[in-house]
Amino acid sequence: MFKRMSALLLTAAFLCGCTAAGGSREEESTATAAVPMIYRDMAVQATADLLSHFWNTHQNRITNNYTMVWEFGMMVFELETMYDATGDEQYKNYIATQWVAMQRVWNQDTISVPGRSPNDANDDAAWNAMTLMAVWRMTGDTKALQWVYQVIRRAYDYWGDYDRTPSPAGLYYDYRDSAGQNRVDPNAPGAVPGDKSFYAAGLLLSALEYTQASGDNSLLQESLNLHAWMETNLRRDGVKTFGDRTLTANDDLYYIGFNESNPAKPYGPLGGNVLGITEAGSDSGLFGNMAMAAINVLVSQITGDDTWRQHAVETANAIPVSLYNNHGVLLNDRDAWVEAAFVRYWVTDVLTLPGVDPENLSLIADTAQSIMTVARTSDGYYYAEWSGGNGWERKGQTNHTQLMTNANTVHMVAAAALAESMGLIQG
User: Fold this and answer.
1) What pTM, to 2 d.p., does this model score?
2) Residue 255: which H helix or E strand, with range?
3) CA pair distance 169, 151, nearest whole angstrom
4) What's the rounded Cα separation, in Å, for the pair 356 and 351?
5) Positive/negative CA dihedral, 374, 40, 127, 261
6) Would residue 121 be called left, alpha or beta, if left means φ above 0 and alpha means ψ between -120 and 50 degrees?
7) 17 near 25, Cβ under 8 Å?
8) Rounded CA gap, 90 and 138, in Å?
9) 146-178, pLDDT tens digit by residue?
10) Which stretch of DSSP H or E encloses residue 416?
């Protein structure tokens, strides 16, 4: 707790209109009065912390072992949000430099190979594709867009359920041996597919973005089929029957996954009528609900069907009245290593829709303030517990010195700065 106290002083300085060193912002500004950008100041500080710990100035890249893309991809997402929030070219330049480092490690074939590093499971490929889309947006390099296509095409072919129509009828998370212990190739003897889940959302979102960016429609119909499967089987919007189970749920949130292959688990969604949503464990996931809302906005734009825009509004309005509203601060429930991955889309594409409850914006703002108050250590690391406590650390899978934990928590602060820059919230 002692290590987090400096963050309290830091946040108090932001909120009273002072710099962390105690100087008045008015004294530092020109004679022209400006609205204090409190959340921007918070985000600049938090991102500077992130860079100080995880940018390798000698190798000029994010500190990582470079067997996977997704781990440093979380920091790329945060840097893109910071560029959108501030217009500061340094954040774009960090991503461009990271792109150079990526090309030293991978080529189009090695970065897109499914079933092994860097795409062990379908979510690894999803974060990979999203990282490459961010690179393309920040650099304009069409090579990144070409790599996005290859990652998605090979992922769909490898994990997609093409035995049901319209296909793919969901993406399997991975394949396991008959004992369920080790990941194997889908053609290996006794290979059993894992659950289908909304961890595939990053692939779907990137496929739709690729379609818009490139004008190439070759992934579009499969992506719309995947979207339809996820909406039908994972969305909680009425009475639905799965095998011998009938579930009734009308909260417009999403189940984390769907079981078809494991006889030890009930067939259908991984959850019941009531979602179990807790810190460090959940039948759903804040990131997945943000993702599906953003995807619905994009599908509505592409197809012209307003049903999907309305689905996005309904999911957004479900968040403030659900357990995700943890006394005014968003709950980091399912996966602290990826929880903020879609928050940029959440702010720009979903929370700007007519009919969205403005309480969502209060949650973004108050989560940022809470993080800077109780989740930042004195040496600039960030915990996964956005309201304080040690739920994630106690579970033992996440700690506050990990790249992914820090990148996602800091990304929530950057999201508030982005909302502030758009005039959606004020300090």
Assistant:
1) 0.93
2) none
3) 19
4) 6
5) positive
6) beta
7) yes
8) 11
9) 999 999 999 999 999 999 999 999 999 999 998
10) helix 403-421
